[in-house]
Specification:
This protein folds into 2 domains: 75 residues, Defensin A-like; 34 residues. It is built from 4 helices and 7 strands, in the order H-E-E-H-H-E-E-H-E-E-E. The strands form 2 sheets. The chain has a 4-stranded antiparallel sheet with strand order 1-2-4-3, covered by helices on one side. A 3-stranded antiparallel sheet has the order 5-6-7, with no helix packed on it. Helix 3 crosses helix 4. It is elongated, with a radius of gyration of 21 Å. The termini are far apart. The relative contact order is 0.12.
Length: 136
């Protein structure tokens, strides 16, 4: 096989690669959709966010409520927070939560789980195998 044939085969193979195959962002941090009811803020897509980040909904809402400094609860597939909260604030908290409890510090992938070993909680990455201690 000469160089011309080889390059033709390489070109043909590259043409068969599907669109978007080389993109590295297969997962994006979810964004909240808010509604306001009286003096309450409702995260309409709360269950979608929890499903996307694959974490316990009670831990996630506890984190949000603690950071905002308010009371609230989960009702159905929505989260209700007391007081009016800004969309920018809620999205920043989702981002912070994901950076702390979802995304691997080493490889930057979201393929992690939280594992309890003794008294410690570890963020274990299935992509690279790294184990980071975290505080719950």
């Amino acid at each position: 096989m000469d160089e011309k044939e080889y390059l033709a085969l390489v070109d043909r193979a590259l043409d068969k690669i599907p669109e978007g195959f080389h993109e590295t962002d297969r997962w994006k941090i979810p964004l909240a959709r808010l509604e306001f009811e009286g003096k309450n803020t409702i995260i309409v897509n709360f269950n979608e966010i929890v499903d996307s980040i694959k974490r316990d909904e009670n831990h996630f809402i506890k984190y949000i409520l603690q950071e905002v400094g308010t009371a609230g609860n989960i009702k159905g597939n929505k989260a209700i927070l007391k007081g009016k909260q800004k969309l920018r604030t809620i999205n920043r908290l989702i981002n912070n939560y994901c950076e702390t409890y979802v995304i691997c510090e080493t490889c930057g992938k979201p393929d992690t789980v939280i594992v309890k070993e003794g008294r410690d909680h570890l963020l274990v990455c299935h992509a690279c195998g790294t184990r980071h201690p975290i505080k719950l």
